[in-house]
Write a structure and sequence with these properties.
316 residues; 2 domains; 17 helices; Four Helix Bundle (Hemerythrin (Met), subunit A); mainly alpha
């Protein structure tokens, strides 16, 4: 018996993605989870720079401009890495791999976001903040993605600088300049990035190895990587404590820096101990997730600590 195929079913098989699928794909291209983490460091720094609540409009435009900047850098990264994303299980569902978005569309989208972020920040904040935003995009695309990522085991160490720029952008948006406080927080994120990302690369070691990306976990044994994670975790906590006399910071930030930092260090040492015992399951994602919680708590304290005197005044 012959089977009649309806025109609607034919169209559903041959037509392109729906507008909802396209929107989701464009959002995915910006890597929103990465953007969320960057914004966690921006807003609190603005409060610290103001020593109070900055203009809400200033915060809105700064966070929006920063999101566009990070989205642009991530979209460029997805375009450049589309070849290896096809061969990695972790990235096999990204929009350029599935074909929901074409390469030309992705590249155009990345350029639009980049130009929009610079223009928006230049108009609504100041030229310094806009220039730092542009520098972050250029650093992530050219230094990390095109140069270091596929060539050096230190790719995350130096490439991670791009993720430190939101701290400077937030400070510059409020003050129009940079300071030691901003530099210290920049360095906190800088030394935090390797012990945050190396455990993830341990989890997906086979993926990175299959495409020839020399992440530290690919080219060094787990014992060596775990030692580096411990050393950088300690360096992160020490750097966070340097902010206390410089800013200066109060009891809340001090307590959070010590307690959450201690937790981060303990998880790092546990990873090292499992590696030394030669356990099959190193559970590196425990360190990965604890690093995110640590940074979130630390920068939340950065934003709340300066408000405590005002809260005492209102309550008294």
């Amino acid at each position: 018996m012959s089977q009649t195929v309806s025109p609607s079913s034919t169209r559903s098989k041959t037509s392109g993605p729906t507008w909802r699928q396209s929107v989701r794909a464009y959002v995915a291209l910006t890597k929103p989870r990465v953007i969320e983490l960057l914004l966690v460091t921006t807003a609190p720094v603005m409060v610290l720079a103001e020593r109070g609540i900055p203009s809400l409009w200033l915060m809105f435009w700064t966070l929006l401009g920063g999101s566009l900047s990070a989205g642009s850098a991530n979209a460029f990264n997805s375009y450049i890495d589309r070849d290896i994303d096809r061969d990695m299980h972790r990235t096999s569902q990204r929009p350029l791999v599935t074909g929901v978005i074409s390469e030309r569309q992705a590249l155009r989208f990345a350029w639009i976001l980049g130009f929009s972020s610079f223009a928006l920040l230049a108009v609504t904040t100041n030229l310094l903040a806009a220039s730092l935003s542009l520098a972050a995009i250029l650093f992530y695309v050219f230094v990390y993605t095109l140069w270091l990522k596929r060539r050096s085991e230190q790719n995350i160490i130096w490439g991670g600088i791009a993720g430190c720029f939101p701290v400077l952008i937030g400070w510059a948006a409020v003050t129009g300049e940079l300071s030691w406080e901003a530099l210290i927080l920049f360095l906190v994120v800088f030394v935090w990035t390797p012990p945050h990302y190396w455990p993830l690369s341990m989890r997906y070691r086979d993926d990175y190895g299959a495409v020839g990306v020399p992440m530290l976990a690919v080219v060094r044994p787990a014992g060596v990587v775990s030692v580096q994670v411990v050393l950088y975790a300690w360096a992160t906590v020490v750097m966070s404590l340097i902010l206390i006399p410089v800013a200066p910071m109060g009891w809340l930030y001090t307590a959070v820096a010590l307690l959450s930092g201690g937790w981060f260090i303990i998880e790092s040492h546990r990873l090292y101990a499992r590696a030394q015992r030669g356990e099959a399951d190193l559970q590196p994602m425990r360190v990965f997730h604890s690093s995110i919680s640590y940074l979130t708590l630390l920068f939340l304290a950065v934003g709340v600590d300066p408000l405590i005197p005002a809260l005492h005044y209102l309550g008294g």
